[in-house]
Design a protein that fits this description.
81% helix
Length: 115
């Protein structure tokens, strides 16, 4: 399966799904994605200039905290962390965990609203 197709499908689903999220949660995803995208760009610049790098753990935690849409865009825009398979594997695990947690929050939220 084409990885780009998966990435862009996830981004499209996120954009559509954000309309179903409560406003604060949608803003959290938007701002954390923007921050994560900027940090991916800064890390790519640091890699080119041989400066101090952002630890991979930090990038993974940012994705897990809701910044994974920005991470996907950052990986593609900056061509950063696209070839390192152990990182990619852990990144997609963090995306799956975040999506599962978000689905759980959505179920709880809609259940509380229906009362």
């Amino acid at each position: 399966m084409n990885l780009y197709l998966v990435c862009y499908s996830l981004l499209l689903l996120t954009a559509v799904g954000s309309a179903l999220l409560p406003y604060p949660l949608a803003m959290w995803f938007l701002l954390s994605s923007l921050l994560t995208w900027l940090i991916y760009g800064a890390d790519k610049l640091a890699a080119r200039k041989a400066w101090r790098r952002v630890p991979e753990t930090t990038l993974l935690v940012l994705g897990l905290a809701g910044g994974w849409p920005g991470a996907i865009l950052g990986q593609q825009c900056f061509r950063h962390k696209t070839q390192k398979q152990p990182f990619r594997r852990w990144f997609f695990v963090s995306v799956a965990l975040n999506v599962a947690a978000l689905a759980g929050l959505y179920v709880v939220y809609t259940h509380l609203l229906s009362r």
